[in-house]
Amino acid sequence: MRVTMLGTGTGVPVPHRGYAGLLLEIGGERVLCDAGPGTLRQLTKTGNSYLDLNRLFVTHAHPDHSLDVVSILFAMRMPGAPRRRPFHIYGPRGLQRLIRRLNVAFHGWLAAETYRLTIHDVGQASFACGRYRVITRRMEHSTEAIGYRFTSGRRAVVYSGDTDTGGGIVELATGADLLILECSTTDERKVKGHLTPTECGQVAAKAGVGHLVLTHFYPVFQGYDIRTRVRDAFRGHLTLAKDFQTFEL
After folding, report:
1. What domains lie within the chain, and their CATH numbers?
2. What is the CA radius of gyration of the chain?
3. pLDDT along the chain (249 residues), means of 10
4. Which of 26, 87, 12 is nearest to 4 (CA)?
5. Which are the catalytic amino acids?
6. Nearest in space to 175 (alpha carbons), one of 239, 240, 236, 246
């Protein structure tokens, strides 16, 4: 497995961080997890094309995590390089309805013409995708949200999307080799539905993960010592992610 962070930022734009999104290469497939604005362009910078993608896993429908779903579906309609292979999009309940409404809003330009598009509304589930397996659990956020666990062989990667300490994040992450966890605000400025550095450390410690990767940093972290707060609870491998950083399992 190989993970490439395409965007480690939030809904507040900053020059050095893209909106939420990552590329996962697993079981002979290339899949996206989340697709905030500009994710498609970030993907091209890694040498990959939207035509290479097999699936897209959306954690929730906030624009900073999902707006480039529009760009991806529109690109697949372009006459110069239309898509031919099937494409699957997974997300929390309501995703099918949202994409139908977006297609109406964009006058039908998101509809698949040259390929088969399947949109999956997912709650708590476990299912196979080719040579790997996906487990989902509901996350505690301000809207319907799910996190994903990807397993190939004995290796497991977990991506939370946006979450608080409740919901299924600890269960989903238990024993994972790599946990990619949102870290939105400082301990002093806790926002419900998001994690602080201390909470991230506590989640990782409870789950017993091998490597904790933090992402989704709001500008409030300028000059803030994230590592020390995380280390109050978690002593394992810790990375504060940057755009285009890669992790191999």
Report:
1. 2-248 (3.60.15.10)
2. 17
3. 98 97 98 98 97 97 98 93 92 97 98 97 95 98 97 98 97 98 97 98 98 98 96 97 98
4. 26
5. 64
6. 236
